[in-house]
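Troubleshooting log. The previous structure file for this entry was overwritten by mistake, so regenerating from the original sequence record. Sequence copied from the archived sheet and checked twice against the printout by T.R.
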Amino acid sequence: MTSERRFKLLQWHGTTALGMVAATLLVLSGCAQMPVQPVPYERADTEAWFSGSTGYSLGSGDKRDYDESRRAYSEERYAEAVRRFEVLAGEGVPEAAYELGKAYRFGNGVQKDPKIAAEWFIAAVSQSHSHWPHASYHLGTMFMEGEGVPRDDTLAYRLLEQALENEVEAAALPLAKLYAEGRGVARDPARAEQLAFEAAEAGVEEAHLWLLRAYGPEGVLDHDPQLVAKLAQRVTAELMQRVRTQQDPQAMRDLAMLHYEGLGVPQDSLTAAGWLDRAAQ
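Regenerated output below.
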């Protein structure tokens, strides 16, 4: 890390406004790009969200600082990571906007704030960088749920489709839900089914549970008791394997859900409660 960046990180305990002034002075002196700032939805150019790409490379110094910031985040040193990302955003690093969006969405290192999270994701999806499709995924799910932005199924569909086209596998399940319900796109159960199975094969845990519900008597796909039974057997085996080998509390909670809702197994509230108790230990 350069001495200039080290000094800026130490000084970041001051106000964000002072940091942005410093970044602006760097821009005027020709030493940095324009700062990346959060963009309110009301002022956003939505069409700019669909012209980006991953064809952008960080300079060696920025990449080193960005990687160090991500390492801090992955090690749950969230406050430090957020300070670092704020510095990088002030220096014009677009990936930092994506990372700040995640921090505000999940409340890591800052107070959880969906509106501010959406503003950072809007900034991130408005220009090309390595995590541009991931920003598209997050923003798409937020429009889908009306989280920090008005609910807009059409924008949700376009953003999620864009993310999936750029190999963000997590976009498959929310897209399946949109196709299954005809939200933002013509209803297409076959496409919904295909996407949900793709998500399940990619390891998206929720996809199995969604498929079990979707094939159920009141599900959005055609009721198929035989397929439900096969899926439930497979899901139960996978969850039990995770319990045996990892003592995974999420697997225990998923088993509780299977039994509580009767998803391919007999409905059993007592068994469900037992799994929840284990998960809480």
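Residues 153 and 183 are 6 Å apart (CA to CA). Archived copy saved in two places this time.
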